[in-house]
Amino acid sequence: MIAPQVAELIAADRIAERQRIACTARLAALARCCQPSTWERTARRVAQGVARLRGPVRRDRHAAAVCCP
Question: Does residue 24 lie in a domain region?
């Protein structure tokens, strides 16, 4: 017999794994129906956001999330 805490951990791990599988399936479905240009724009925006986050923060601007203008 396993302790209730161990059973909760196992259940949480299984739920997380199912969520990862569902997210992967949604991304795959999105990739199948999107135009290549959409992926290019998305990749460019993500790269720009990462560059902004990794680069030095200018004194005249505050650090904000990538989605903020």
Answer: yes
